[in-house]
Amino acid sequence: MLILLLGGAAAAAWWVMHGRNAPITEPAAAQAVASAPPQWVEESQCQSCHSTAFADWQGSHHQLAMQPASEQTVLGDFSGQQIASDAETSEFLRDDESFVIRTPDANGQSADFKVAYTFGLEPLQQYLLEMPGGRLQAHGMAWDTQQQAWFHLYQGQGVDHHSQLHWTGALQNANFMCVECHTTDFKRNYDAGTDSFASRFQALGVGCQSCHGPASEHLTWAENNATTTPEQQSESKGFSTSPSIAPAAEVEVCARCHSRRSPLDDGYQHGNALMDDFLPSILSADLYEVDGKIKEEVFEYGSFKQSKMHAAGVVCSDCHNPHSNELRATGNGVCTQCHNTNAQPIRADIQGSGLQARNYDSPAHHNHPNGSAGAQCINCHMPGKLYMTNDLRHDHSFTSPNPAQALELGHTDACLGCHQPAEPAELVAQYLAQYPDAEPRDGGYAQDLSAVRGGKPGAAAALNRQLAREDQPAIRVATLVSELPRYPSLAALQQLAGALQHADPSVRVAAVNNLPALATETQLRDLLAPLASDSIRAVRLAVAWQLAQLSAQTKSGLTAWPTLQAEYEQVQNNLLERAEAHFNLAMLYQLSGREDQVEAALREALERDAAFFPAVIMQAQWQEQYFRLPQVGLAILQKALKAHPREASLQHALGLALVRQGKLADALPAFAQAHERAPDNSDYAYVLAIALHDSGEPEQARELLRQQLAADPANRQLRLALVSYLSGQDSQEARMLMEQLREQNPDDPAVAGR
């Protein structure tokens, strides 16, 4: 199991700010730098030539993304207020010139912590507190700049010092999680030997070089070309790419921060592809709704990447001024730049063949009074959702309302969300009366994906239908490819093999990750070998992890394997502040015959995060299986359960450990607890059913499988287990279950040829 590190938005740092080099002002200095790699410069030098862009940037959310705490920058009330969440109380104080939060520490003891930086501007502002080891931690209390009040980001979740979400924990460490996207040229500079940070940045806030790259060679170019004509000047003007950032690259530049992604290094490198430095998430069911709209906090990239806007060539700066962060126009003006009576896109290189000459900013189109909420394009085509309690973010997949589909498939809808408490059936009737020709604009993607995830009749055919579409956005292809293991067949294996050659790296990664479910070891080796030299790092890392799990004999002859293994290991070493990285290394050490390094890696993981349960479980198994100390393994699990009695994964692991010791009767309560605490986890239900059956409770086992299968009809493992346990009991029910499987996937090996 490869544990990924997901980045998000949350915090900053208290180190001394300094630049890498002094401003280049003399021709000789400029010439000296020209032969060296581009360097970062003081951004004030940009102002003299780029005054308009600089003026736009001044006061923007980008410029003020992170600021030293001061009278001018702190917006919250630090006059001595005591604010209680559902689990803790914090007090906000002044100490001379400093801002202080008196709050429970990692041990639950109240202490005073100095605010080092403000984080963000509106609609909320967070505060970053100084901690030992160069750490900055984001406190859970934030200031609502609209309501002028304190609120807790996790109110109602019982977040105290025992919780992983507590401000002192790894999930609130700003050095790793947040500062990169709130500063320019940030490096975490983590030292694993001392478990400390010496983090640094070129400048606070998101500055010019954050997007355009280090500017030393641009300064050289500017000085050397001061008297030349435009025809004589180089297109790149001293940057690694065009200074205007080509549309083909712009979305990836913005995605470094405006995406849900996992880091692969200590920051990004300008000129790299996005997936050389990050692994963006796909449209998984936990993050996105079935029609692609945002569900959990995913920022903008994933939803935009699947939109018709992106497919037509629209980029972020067509709608947003990249320097001021403001929209290009007010009201519906942003949309009518392209969607207008002339059907002319704002730029010539935007594909406008799908545009229709129509007055969209009219009741004839939106069927709402002008000036009302329903007359605004964003409210119908970009419905918003609150994150971090009060931060409204608009969906960027640009869907159209479809209340009938929403009711059928269970996703949100702009009409249903706005017209409450209207009767849904009446609302659907009104919608169809107003839009009689309305039909899904996604080619049936939502309907088919719902069938796939819900195990409906024709699910495999629906999956194939969507994968066969030539107009399918790559991020949707990657999502669909990830569903193929649910419906095994020779055709599914061939589709996965074909996806390995897809032009988009996100599809290749998805294919690599899901291929083991359908391929033999030999097939896996032969299909993945060509990708060992893939141009994109995220693809190579996925290949490395899959090859690592093959037997040494199967890998023999793969000349690229040592290089792949070294790269995978290096990426983990770039992320050693995280428990996940040490855990990944422990797994790699075990698979590569370096057993003497496994235990130390697990200890390091738990030192970073004592509540990182995969490492706890592996540590217990390692004591049992490698050191032949099963009682020590049990003691590790029992100790962890004492501290975290409601953690389902620990209960499940305890049950498995007891089964391996031949104590099935003792294991049953643990399996039952795991299922009770995580009822949606089909693996826990499956194992509990087996344990019940083997304990002489076959009817309980069958009933559990029936209940779980009703909730997850696409789960082939549950279905076949129930069929097996019905043998000699109810052949009619078994035949019905297999017929349902045939209806889902007639090419399934379990039913094919029957």
UniProtKB/TrEMBL annotation:
Keyword vocabulary terms for this entry: Signal, TPR repeat
GO molecular function, one term: oxidoreductase activity
TPR repeat locations: 648-681
Pfam family name, one: Paired_CXXCH_1
Signal found in the keyword field: yes
SMART domains named among the record's database cross-references: TPR
UniProt domain Doubled CXXCH motif: residue ranges: 315-343
Domain Cytochrome c-552/4: 164-213
Name recorded for this polypeptide: Tetratricopeptide repeat protein
Organism: Halopseudomonas pelagia
